[in-house]
């Protein structure tokens, strides 16, 4: 018997259970339906007839009152129109006797109606309103009440019968519900028991084959699936055994050696503690190591868009690095810890990964993919945060005694506490300059602390560009004159104002202009240019100094970094703070420099076009 036949046979008990359940439902629902139909046939028509008889009697009584009130013609017309339908409804009631005592009640209604009709005929023969009124109250009205009471008796009898039958119908419905629940439970239990048993017997060979496949996947090429029979599963087991036999032969051949080498290389990648991914040129996932599977929850065997299941922030970083490498721009190296991406990794908790990328070349030398390494810099980042906290604390502690020291030196140098000699004045002047330098370093450290703690608040408002540039140049004019450096500016007419935090941007421009003056020789020039590029405003600070070597240009924006040969007096924070302030405005800061030909520091700020 084939597997298809076995599976179809396993459904037979369930089908029989459904047929039994359906037959039970049809029979019980038919019984309930017949009971409801009986209520309609037996009593509803009688109720409707007696209600109409009562209405017609009341209209005839209204006609009698019209006659008494002097509207004889209207009363005559109305009473005459009510007699035929009343006779019709009474006949219907007499033909629909279904309840005990209903025949006697109907006969009383017939007798009362006959009497009322005869009294009405006598009432119509009365002469004059007084005679009609007297006849109405003495004979016609009592006959009307009697007929109406007889109709109410028939109505009440049928209504009571309907209530009783409705109670019986409800009891039948409850019995039907109980019967249906028992039938469903019995049918479901019968069907599931026998269907499960037959399916387990039919699929037991599948379990044997699955165990053999699992063993083969774990590297046991001696695994075999022992399945007897002639169905599809047995044929599949024979094919599996043949495949396992040939695989064992391949392992002994050169192909086996190649596979073993691949396994060794994969083991080497898996031994790396940092996540490693290999992406194709189109972004497809080609390979991952064990660390990437654990941290990023990536699986090659999941198929589809594997990266689509990674956290959006991590996926954006991976795509950016891949685009850089595949775009032919060489290996990707991060600029600093700020490029580290945050990943929620259990049970380790939050981890910070710094991306790096290198190209994968094809046989002809073209870039066919990218290898991405996410270096775990969690501990280094924490050390960096501790260092920043320490620096901020020290800067805060330095500020108060440094202010007192500056004031004391100033008072002594000015002779407030006594006359000083020329040599003492020189020493005090040097000390005051060192205090000012220390004050600048402390201010830089505090600014850096506020930026890194997220406390940098921008007071953005519209400022005249010329005023902003002039203030930055004026702050450095004394130093420029001392060094013999010219200061100049060039402003585009379409950038009259900019929306910035003037105090923060003054710090950026002052730092760039001051650096330019310090690195420009005598008779050199530092110029500031402002122009518009679409929705961006570009500021450039150009000097004619010694320039910056290419290997130093990527590092000068790092915190506490000082280029070799840089003048003494700073802490290496100015450019780092300037970059953070520009980025807080939504812009970018960079440098273009050639050794021996000067440098141009530039930054852009997003600004709406002026109308």
TrEMBL record:
Residues 200-252 form the HAMP domain. This is histidine kinase. PROSITE patterns: HAMP, HIS_KIN, PAC. One of its GO terms (molecular function) is ATP binding. Residues 337-389 form the PAC domain. It is an enzyme of class 2 (transferase). PANTHER family: HISTIDINE KINASE 1 (PTHR43711:SF1), TWO-COMPONENT HISTIDINE KINASE (PTHR43711).
């Amino acid at each position: 018997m084939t597997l298809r036949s076995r599976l179809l046979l396993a459904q037979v008990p369930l089908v029989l259970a459904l047929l039994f359940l359906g037959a039970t439902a049809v029979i019980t629902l038919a019984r309930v339906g017949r009971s409801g139909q009986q209520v309609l046939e037996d009593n509803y028509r009688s109720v409707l007839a007696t209600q109409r008889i009562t209405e017609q009697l009341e209209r005839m009584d209204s006609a009698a009152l019209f006659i008494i009130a002097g509207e004889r013609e209207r009363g005559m017309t109305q009473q005459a129109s009510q007699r035929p339908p009343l006779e019709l409804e009474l006949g219907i009631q007499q033909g629909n006797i279904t309840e005990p005592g209903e025949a006697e009640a109907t006969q009383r209604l017939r007798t009362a109606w006959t009497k009322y009709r005869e009294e009405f005929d006598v009432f119509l023969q009365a002469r004059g309103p007084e005679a009609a009124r007297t006849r109405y109250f003495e004979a016609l009205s009592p006959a009307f009440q009697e007929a109406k009471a007889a109709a109410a008796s028939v109505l009440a009898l049928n209504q009571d019968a309907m209530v009783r039958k409705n109670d019986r119908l409800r009891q039948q419905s409850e019995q039907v519900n109980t019967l249906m629940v028992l039938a469903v439970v019995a049918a479901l239990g019968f069907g599931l028991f026998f269907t499960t048993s037959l399916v387990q017997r039919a699929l037991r060979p599948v379990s044997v084959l699955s165990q053999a496949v699992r063993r083969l996947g774990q590297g046991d090429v001696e695994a075999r699936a022992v399945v007897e029979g002639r169905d599809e599963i047995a044929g599949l087991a024979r094919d599996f055994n043949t495949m396992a036999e040939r695989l064992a032969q391949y392992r002994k051949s050169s192909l086996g050696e190649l596979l073993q080498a691949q396994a060794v290389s994969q083991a080497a990648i898996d031994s790396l503690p940092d996540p490693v991914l290999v992406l194709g040129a189109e972004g497809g996932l080609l390979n991952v190591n064990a660390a990437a599977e654990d941290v990023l929850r990536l699986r090659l065997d999941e198929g589809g868009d594997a990266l689509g299941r990674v956290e959006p922030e991590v996926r954006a970083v991976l795509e950016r690095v891949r685009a850089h490498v595949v775009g032919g721009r060489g290996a990707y190296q991060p600029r600093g810890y700020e490029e580290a991406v945050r990943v929620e990794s259990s049970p380790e908790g939050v981890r910070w990964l710094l991306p790096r990328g290198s190209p994968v070349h094809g046989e002809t030398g073209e870039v066919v993919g990218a290898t991405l390494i996410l270096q775990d810099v969690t501990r280094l980042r924490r050390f960096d945060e501790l260092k920043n906290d320490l620096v901020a604390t020290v800067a805060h502690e330095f500020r108060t005694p440094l202010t007192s020291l500056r004031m004391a030196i100033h008072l002594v140098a000015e002779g407030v506490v006594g006359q000083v000699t020329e040599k003492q004045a020189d020493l005090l002047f040097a000390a005051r300059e060192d205090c000012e330098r220390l004050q600048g370093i402390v201010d830089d450290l505090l600014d850096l602390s506020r930026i890194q703690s997220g406390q940098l608040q921008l007071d953005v408002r519209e400022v005249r560009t010329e005023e902003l540039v002039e203030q930055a140049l004026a702050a450095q004019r004394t130093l420029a004159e001392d060094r013999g450096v010219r200061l100049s500016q060039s402003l585009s007419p379409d950038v009259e104002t900019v929306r910035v935090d003037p105090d923060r941007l003054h710090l950026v421009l002052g730092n760039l202009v001051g650096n330019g003056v310090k690195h420009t020789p005598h008779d050199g020039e530092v110029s500031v240019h402002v122009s518009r590029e679409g929705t961006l405003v570009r500021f450039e600070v150009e000097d004619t100094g010694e320039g910056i070597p290419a290997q130093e240009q990527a590092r000068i924006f790092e915190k506490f970094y000082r280029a070799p040969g840089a003048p003494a007096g700073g802490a290496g924070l100015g450019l780092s703070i300037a970059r953070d302030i520009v980025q807080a405005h939504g812009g970018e800061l960079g440098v273009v420099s050639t050794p021996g030909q000067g440098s141009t520091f530039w930054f852009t700020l997003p600004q709406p076009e002026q109308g």
